[in-house]
Amino acid sequence: MRLSEFFVPTLKEYPSDTEIPSHSLSLRAGLIRKVASGVYSFLPMGLKVLRKIEDIIRQEMNNAGAIELFLPVLQPSMLWEKSGRWNEYGPELFRLKDRNERDFCLGPTHEELITYLACMDIKSYKDLPVNLYQIQVKFRDEMRPRYGLLRAREFIMKDAYSFSANDSDLDVIYDKMHDAYCRILERIGLEYRVVAADTGLIGGDVSHEFIVLAENGEEKIVFCPECGYSESYEMSKSIPSDPEVEDINETGKKVVMGSIKEINTPGLTSVDGLVDSLKVENTKIVKAMVLTDEDGNIYIFLIRGDRELNLKKAGSFLKKSLSLLEKDKKTGNLVMGYIGPVGLDAGIELYADNSIRGLKNFITGANKKDFHLMNVNYPRDFKVREWSDFSYPIQGDSCTSCGGKLKIEKGIEVGHIFKLGYKYSKKMDANFLDKDGKLKPMVMGCYGIGVSRIIAAVIEQLHDDKGIIWPDSITPYMINIITTTEKNSKLSEAGNEIYRKLKRMGLEVLYDDRDISAGIKFRDSDLIGVPVKLIIGKNFIDKKVIDVEYRKTGEKIEIKVDSIPGFINKNRFLK
Asked: Assuming Cys at both sites, which of 93, 156, 231, 441 could form a disulfide with 425, CB separation 3.0 to 4.6 Å?
């Protein structure tokens, strides 16, 4: 494609309303344009990348035995009411009425619709298993759309849904989808990790997220380089790192339990405030987190001062839905900000995180306004109902599987697969006649991967201060021919001849034949991220050679015009 005839509106300046590189570079490189908050148009260059990602996904889905279809975006409310998600999904669901006042929604996902389809057309075990997928636009009314394509209100997604007669058939499909997603990300050229994850609103018992590593990612993942353990930050397990508090002090003497001492701490209701005022490490402080369940019952969880309570872990442990008690809400004799385990009301259940095991002479609230206690020790001063892992991991924690040191990294979730089980099939009467002649609910799985989201994830992981660095598999163009000036007839003739030759070879090539300065051409090429530049300039006139520059490494070489076909084949630009 000749750039003089193409539509690539690049921007020199950084857009003021962008926060992360992928958003800024998508706009500057002319991939997308904002229509409204969280809504974007894909321009020609962005559309080429999008289609290539779709092609890779489609190939891997087909190879894994999935069958493509296409479902409507507009979904009747009755399907969502039957599954129970019409109200459960909340304000993120785009809702609308037709002229007859019937309720519909714009699908953020298609579990209800695909289950309805299965209910109508799958009748026997002979029809199972089957895995159906689509590549479709989704809608989600994000409260705060941001980061460009990463948190948009309209986005493109591949979603697949499997129906099986039993769990073992589901396991086979689930593993195939897991492997297919890995191949997709590897073919694109991304560094990623697969982690066990929470099932959230989609539901089911088992799920895994596919996380592309990136500094600006909103997801945290925990993994062990030694044994390969990996899990989402919310679900991860760890052995707490030892605090700087030991049984033996600096002089080599055993630390003895001191006598409890009440200290005046007016207005100091936070760990940071105590650290600054008392000049102690945060690992010497134990904070009491007050939680409540749906029935108003109170529970207190003790956590070391350098760690944060994981509500999901606490709720899972008690098999209850828990939330933090609001600070300004009065409950019995609890003094918010000064709560501690010593002298606590016997009717309140007290749980302790493993991070405080072995602590000596620590500081807690005194259950008295403006006072804390020093030299608190377990089990001398209080009792605990049960101990467990109730906190998020921190750097330095150890792996529960092998004891190796865990690492915490940030990334972007681009894919999520779920074992749904019977969640939708039972509610929506998606039954089949099994071999034994009995009617049974289908066993379901669902598998989503964000197509438009992958574009942003690629840019976040693969960019520099000049612009995007596209991997070969999804680059909009493999080679950019640049003539340093179109005013020189020898250069323009050579550019045209090389362009025609590469086109005849079947190569995707961009030819910057615009009558502008060479500097702008080089800048735009780096910004757009084309992997290879063929520069026709002074060296062509002087030595009849073309300068080759690789976008990723910056490496530069010279080749002769007649050696271009060999150069192309050697570098395997033709797939």
From this structure: 441
